[in-house]
Amino acid sequence: MTAEHSQLHVYSAGAVAAPLQEAVKIFEREEGARVRVTVGKPANLLASIAQSKQGDLISCGAEYILDEAESRGLIVKGSRRSLGARRSVIIVPVGNPGGIRSLADLCRPDARIGVAADGCLKGVWDDIASKAGVTDAFRRNITHYADACGSLMALINQEKVDAIIGWNAFHNIWPDSCEVIELEDRLQTFRSTVIGIVKYTSNMNLAQKLVDFLVSDKGRGIYADYGWINRECKL
Length: 235
Hints:
Elements: E1 7-13, H1 17-31, E2 34-40, H2 42-52, E3 57-60, H3 63-71, E4 81-93, E5 113-116, H4 124-132, H5 135-140, E6 142-146, H6 149-157, E7 163-167, H7 170-173, E8 178-181, E9 190-197, H8 204-214, H9 217-225
Parallel strand pairs: 1-2, 1-3, 5-6, 5-7
Antiparallel strand pairs: 3-9, 4-7, 4-8, 4-9
Helix pairs in contact: 1-9
């Protein structure tokens, strides 16, 4: 394998980068390959691929983001694979100063909530609140909007809000910054973390090898260590 054909450029959304980067290190050792991971907000990653017409793979925390990529002709149709799912939870600052214990507490008149207006958590608050029948009460308490998971966690770190709607894996990635309040099973939302091969790849074989590694038992085990859930089954 030539040097040119032993390199990959992978784009990754920020909050799904940690397990990917760990898996990539193992893949590099096993394959003798080099993998560069560019981390950023999904919208910026798609814009970069569209403008540069370069790259080999992209991973994001919701299928709808790669729906957009596929509809724009930026990824190879049929190349997408799910790497596991994350479960929706309430995230609060360490110590839980707002005393949030349940979704009902987020509907108190004094609650301050942060939600995502973009990225993998876009719209998740609506799914949860609508199931519970508390949409209006919940919406009245949304005080801050964020455009990505990192921006949401900044609201927690700066204690600008009492809680955010996030993913269970946040605690594994930022264990010193937050605590998790579980939602009732009936209110939970799951979204797939997905990877797809970029249309402009110059190394399809190696890109496919990385995908295969990520969905192998070893690859899925790395994601599971960070809190991802393997919900794939054959009906």
